[in-house]
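Memo to structure team: turn this sequence into structure tokens by end of day. - J.P.
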Amino acid sequence: MTALLKARYYKATGAAGKKYSLPADPFDGVVHERAIYAAVKAYLANQRQGTASAKNRAVITGGGRKPFRQKGTGRARAGTIRSPIWRGGAIVFPPIPRDYRQTLPKKVQRLARRSAFNARAAEDRVVVLEAFAMEEPKTRQLIKLLDKLGLGDDKVLILTAADESKVYLSARNVPNLQVKRYGHESTYDVLWADCLLIEEGALTGGAPRADADGPVEDAAAAPAAAENEDA
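Reply from structure team:
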């Protein structure tokens, strides 16, 4: 049986709490590197517009008349001024509009997403926050909270339990912050971030768990007996 992964836990005020036992879904401890590779490759391919275009000899205008006679000039034969070897001529193998989109089976997508979460959790790059106590959008307040959690210099993906417009508006002008509702993130989003900041309600599906409260001096030094039970 795979050992439960744990993450740092903080109260809404930024005070450290006991170590948090992450739920088995999606934190089952399995990291499938091939699935991650396929998911990231498909994501990057799907970002390409595929609108690059240039003209070949079939579509370029002009060049219908032979530029000079075949023999007697001492020059190489030429049938058109739109030849690719002439300046201003056509392109031999030009880029043409195409679709780069790749699709993955849903099971592979889910496996890649779980693997990305497990990879971050195994590196201690998952932080669980009790809730975002923001009465109004304030970028300064959000940055101050991240500094308290020790995430001020990292690329952070914030996963909220619901559509938190206050958090989104507070983070939209900060280059290294992304805010998404939990479940709407992609494998690439998880791997892009140095650290994941997950609202507790996103993992529990509701209110904070009763056994996850109680700030301590050092979350890493909290005794195992005081750790919360499995979700």
